[in-house]
């Protein structure tokens, strides 16, 4: 950060009659500090105080406008502001401050807003939300690492939270607290730097996780109204342990990549279809999945070198309501697959159909289709 040399402040004093004025030099301690230490000190101030300090002290203006910690709370700036005009001026001041700081790095962006319950004004509340979302987008451009939002007292019945923030490669922590936050669709594509992913929502209906980086260790999904779940893991990525999914109303499941060693998938009582490719088939023998007992239609495409035959045998032996099974494999393996499946003890009277695969298969992976209806 470039800043002017304000390390010394000169003051003049005169001593004695006819005495000459002499200049006394005093140190400006804040300007003498390294940037990271000064920023750490300023991190305890709110953005409102930073804006005031940058106007009062020229030597601190550079520090205030480049600090990576932005903390704003309505109560810190104008606790008694109960008019639309005062609210508007407060937000305008904050917006000017963010504009002046340019593209300096933002490590933490925190915004707290709670409207006075005695106020009947609602127009400003909508303005607050859309302004904050624009500031969040600006923080994303400045490689923000932590975002913490507390927004209460907003009158909009539905406030859609932008999913684009999850595309921020530098984002490490996101915390959102709102009274009426409705997030129905969430897509995370190529997320980086996230080790623990915890999602709890009563409104989320569709969640997609696409090719996360290898540093993702824990995945916890608790969404009672989730209906569609799609997860795609990178080839060669290690298993995620633990995996906990609570989605009692899940209808469609799609998974590509390695499945976890000891996952807790819960009971998908309303599951209608599931597709899975590229995972250890031994998992199915270790887990007593509830939907297996309701399975009616099963399709599997076997790739060369995969152990998908074991899964097919498991389905035939443990799915009592099974009506139809379709097995797709290469022409050279067709007879061998038939012999292996003929040895299993079927629990149902399902019809088995074999088809020759056309085209080049994916190496060491199988494609599976399940249907309960």
UniProtKB/TrEMBL annotation:
Superkingdom per UniProt: Eukaryota
Positions of the F-box domain: 27-58
Listed Gene3D superfamilies: 1.20.1280.50, Ribonuclease Inhibitor
Annotated InterPro entries: F-box-like_dom_sf, F-box_dom, LRR_dom_sf
Matches recorded under PROSITE patterns: FBOX (PS50181)
SMART domains assigned: FBOX
Alphabetical list of Pfam families matching this protein: F-box
Protein name: F-box domain-containing protein
Taxonomic source organism: Prunus dulcis
């Amino acid at each position: 950060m470039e800043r002017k040399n304000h390390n010394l402040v000169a003051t003049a004093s005169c001593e004695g009659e006819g005495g000459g004025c002499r200049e006394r030099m005093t140190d400006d301690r804040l300007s003498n500090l390294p940037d990271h230490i000064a920023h750490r000190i300023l991190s305890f101030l709110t953005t409102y105080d930073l804006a005031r300090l940058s106007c009062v002290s020229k030597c601190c203006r550079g520090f205030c406008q480049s600090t990576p910690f932005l903390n704003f709370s309505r109560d810190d700036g104008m606790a008694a502001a109960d008019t639309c005009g005062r609210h508007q001026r407060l937000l305008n001041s904050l917006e000017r401050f963010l504009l002046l700081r340019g593209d300096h790095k933002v490590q933490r962006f925190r915004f707290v807003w709670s409207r006075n319950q005695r106020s009947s004004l609602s127009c400003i509340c909508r303005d607050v939300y859309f302004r904050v979302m624009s500031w969040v987008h600006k923080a994303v451009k400045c490689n923000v690492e932590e975002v913490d939002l507390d927004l209460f007292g907003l009158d909009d019945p539905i406030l859609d939270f932008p999913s684009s923030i999850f595309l921020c490669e530098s984002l490490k922590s996101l915390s959102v607290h709102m009274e009426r936050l409705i997030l129905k669709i969430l897509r995370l594509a190529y997320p980086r730097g996230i080790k623990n992913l915890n999602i709890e929502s009563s409104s989320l209906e569709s969640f997609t996780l696409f090719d996360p980086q290898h540093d993702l260790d824990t995945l916890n999904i608790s969404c009672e109204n989730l209906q569609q779940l799609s997860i795609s893991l990178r080839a060669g990525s290690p298993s995620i342990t633990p995996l906990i999914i609570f989605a009692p109303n899940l209808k469609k499941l799609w998974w590509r990549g390695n499945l976890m060693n000891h996952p807790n998938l819960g009971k998908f009582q309303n599951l209608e279809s599931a597709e899975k490719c590229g995972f250890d088939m031994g998992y199915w023998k270790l887990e007593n999945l509830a939907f297996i007992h309701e399975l009616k239609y099963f399709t599997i495409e076997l790739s060369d070198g995969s152990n998908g035959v074991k899964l097919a045998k498991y389905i035939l032996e443990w799915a009592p309501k099974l009506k139809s099974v379709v097995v797709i494999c290469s022409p050279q393996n067709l007879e061998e697959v038939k012999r292996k499946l003929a040895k299993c003890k079927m629990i149902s009277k399902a019809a088995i159909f074999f088809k020759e695969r056309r085209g080049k298969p994916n190496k060491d992976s199988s494609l599976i289709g399940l249907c309960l209806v």
